[in-house]
Amino acid sequence: MTTTGALAAAAAPSHLLSPTVGAAAAAAAASGAAPPLAVEAMTVRYGRTTAVDRVSLALAEGGVYALLGRNGAGKSSLVRCLLGQQRATAGFARIFGRDVWRHRAALMAEVGVVPEQPDAPPGASARRLARLCRRLYRGWDDDGFEQRLRRFAVPPELPFGRLSKGQQRHVTLALALAGGPRLLILDDPTLGLDAVARRAFFEEIVGELADRGISIFLTSHELPAVERIAERVGILDGGRLLVDEDLERLKHRLRRIRLPRAAAAGSATGEAADAALEALAPLRRETRDWGVEVVVGAYDDRRFERLRAAVAGGAATVSSLTLEEIFTALVGHDPAAAAPADAPAAAPAGRATGGSPWQV
Amino acid sequence: MDAGFRIDPSDARPIWRQIEENVRQLVASGILPPATVVPSVRDLARSLTVNPATVAKAYQRLTDAGVLAVRRGDGTYVAAAPPVFSAEERVRRLDVEARRYVNAAVTLGATPRESAAALATAWSALGAAPAGSEAVNATAAPDTPRPRDGGNEGEP
After folding, report:
1. pLDDT reading at B52 higher than 60
2. What was the pLDDT predicted at B127?
3. Distance from the CA of A191 to the CA of which of A320, B105, B122, B126 falls in 20 to 30 A?
4. Do residue B11 and residue A318 have CB atoms under 8 angstroms apart?
5. Could you report the per-residue pLDDT of A154-197, keeping only the tens digit for each?
6. Do B51 and A64 touch (CB under 8 A)?
7. In this complex, do A224 and B9 lie within 8 Å of one another by their Cβ atoms?
8. Of the candidates B127, B101, B125, which has an alpha carbon nearest to the alpha carbon of residue B115?
9. Which residue segments constitute the domains of chain B, with CATH numbers given?
10. B residues 115..134 contacting A (CB < 8 A)
11. Which of A108, A250, A120, A124 is nearest to A185 (CA)?
12. A229: which chain B residues are within 8 Å (Cβ-Cβ)?
């Protein structure tokens, strides 16, 4: 927030302000086939702490990319760099092919942002904020802005500081969309909102995707909603991008396999079964009353058939995981096993190690 | 039509396939008769809060399969004529879907008997299947032609 802080103090939300109108940027961006957003080998260090560790990712035109991670995983640092509010220690962020740090003023006129902390002046009403922002955008859509306020049931003349958290977020979204952006960056936009406000927020975004084919980059902890909207998912853990993959593929390869105790304990199954399970890349193993549950990272039908054939009675079963379950399996490290802060990041997926996965 | 939709994130099928199969089922069971206008991509995406591209993919596949049709300016509706497949194509599709189902049944650890019973239940759930029909018998000839199940032949 440092670089644009002065502007924010002057009048309007900092992310909506830019010193110059981005006409040149619009022309340049319209010509190229560069992705709306690309991060290339980005590293962010604070002293000896590495917050973002050589992260590369890209958002496809018209796509929805969701960046997930636990608190402190590096999401905020990465997003600040995306918005040109902070300079990466190494690497780049590009928006429509242009370096964000060098062209941030021009680029921000093409990007709608809903920041984690609404930074509008508390005394200004939604309408006044719109008047302040209007002249910075060529395609400002006043009618759309007013319609969104009505849909969100936000009183247009009430000072921003007196609106509820949900209303503040809705105003920020309405402001972000009124500029007619081609790219929307949402930083944990539904944090602290109730279920109704959350739904209204996501409905609005879905409508925008349908109407204008906008591209969206978001960070969120609202995984059930993300699961329905995102096409591609990145998972940050300890600054490193553990996953950068189409959600459909991710959900295909991460599965839960259940081995009832009879099968799990069957000594006759032995090495063949161990090898078959190993081929599925077990990530986590939990012991249940009835047997063992294993989350695997490399499911495919053939490999599973081999496992089923190898266990006693063919009793192995498989089920799919929700994004929330996938997230937990990948980054829900056992706190006791967490690496000390100074040590290099722990092995990403907490692979099941030591002994047969069958041992109950 | 929204009421007929359930999107389940814990379902192994991608959301677009869930939507596609939901529509197929609603059409096959007659809940959505021919010429019924279905919600626009935008409206269905909003009501399910899913990515419109996901709904569009399902609609595109349904249109390609002849289950839905698009009329310029009029939106998308259930096709007046059910899809017509050649006898060969019909057998092939049925075989593909049967294998898909058997694979799913196997991964669930279901026996052939159990999966046949589940098939029978699914037929009755469609409503139009005669109670206690031969559907229970997995080897029975497909002697109960059904309206708009994607398997009709001979009609334009």
Report:
1. yes
2. 67
3. A320
4. no
5. 999 999 999 998 999 999 999 999 999 999 999 999 988 999 99
6. yes
7. yes
8. B101
9. 2-78 (1.10.10.10), 83-156 (no CATH)
10. none
11. A108
12. 49-51
pTM greater than the 0.80 cutoff: no
Residue B154 near chain A (CB below 8 Å): no
Q: What is the pLDDT of residues A91-108, one digit of tens each?
A: 999 999 999 999 988 888
Whether chain A has a CB inside 8 Å of the CB on B112: the answer is no
Q: How far is A46 from chain B (nearest CA, A)?
A: 37
Mean of pLDDT values over B25-53? 90
A254-337 adopts what CATH topology? Alpha-Beta Plaits (3.30.70)
Chosen CATH of A5-246 out of 3.40.50.300, 3.40.190.10, 3.20.20.70, 3.40.50.1000: 3.40.50.300
Residue positions counted in chain A: 360
Residue length, chain B? 156
Residue of B nearest to A304 (CA): B107
Q: Is the pLDDT of residue B140 over 80?
A: no
Structure tokens at A244: 């950068």
Strands A64-69, A215-219: parallel, antiparallel or unpaired by DSSP?
Answer: parallel
Which residues in chain B (18-57) have CB-CB distances under 8 A to chain A? 41-42, 45-46, 48-54
Please identify among residues 90-109 of chain B the ones whose CB lies closer than 8 Å to any CB of chain A.
103, 106-109
Phi then psi for residue A195, to 5 deg, are -60, -35
Q: Averaged over A257-262, what is the pLDDT?
A: 82
Alpha-carbon gap: B54 to the closest alpha carbon of chain A (Å): 8
Domain boundaries, chain A: 5-246, 254-337
Residues of B in Cβ contact (< 8 Å) with A316: 109
- Asked whether the beta carbons of residue A322 and residue B9 sit closer than 8 angstroms, the reply is yes
User: Å from B12 to nearest chain A CA?
Assistant: 5
